[in-house]
Amino acid sequence: VQLQASGGGLVQAGGSLRLSCAASGRTFSVYTIGWFRQTPGKEREFVALNSWRADITDYADSVKGRFTISRDNAKNTVYLQMNSLKPEDTAVYYCAAGLQVRPREYDYWGQGTQVTVSS
């Protein structure tokens, strides 16, 4: 599986962005897709995940109520709708794919997309 994240950019606080994670492969629907983010000098942080097989979505407490993860298996794409953005959401965002419903480790990673939220 190859993943490509896109949709990052510069937005003012309170604004919105939608990230996309496009995947190759015919078995996309079996994978749990997770979104993570990382800022310089900090560890990578879990943001959200979606398992279509188990009909599960999960979010980090810091983004609950503001971010929504969704997927379109026909397009092999997972989206992360980010609303009410805050400066602390600034990071490089990565998508990843794993076969477990809640992967301890993800098998495939995409390149990151930069999200910058100005105050």
Short summary:
By secondary structure, the protein is mostly beta strands.
Structure description:
There is one protein chain. With 119 residues, the protein is mostly beta strands. Helices cover 0% and strands 51% of the residues. It is built from no helices and 11 strands. Strands 2, 4, 5, 6, 9, 10 and 11 form a 7-stranded mixed sheet that branches. Strand 4 and strand 5 form a beta hairpin. The N and C termini lie far apart (37 Å).
SSE sequence, one letter per element: EEEEEEEEEEE
Query: What is the number of beta strands?
Result: 11
For the biggest sheet, the summary is:
7 strands, mixed
Number of helices: 0
DSSP strand content: over 45%
Give the distance, in angstroms, between the N- and C-terminal Cα atoms: 37 Å
Estimated helix fraction: under 10%
Structural class: mainly beta
Gyration radius (Cα, Å) is 13 Å
How much is the average pLDDT?
96
Low-confidence runs: none
Mass-distribution shape: globular
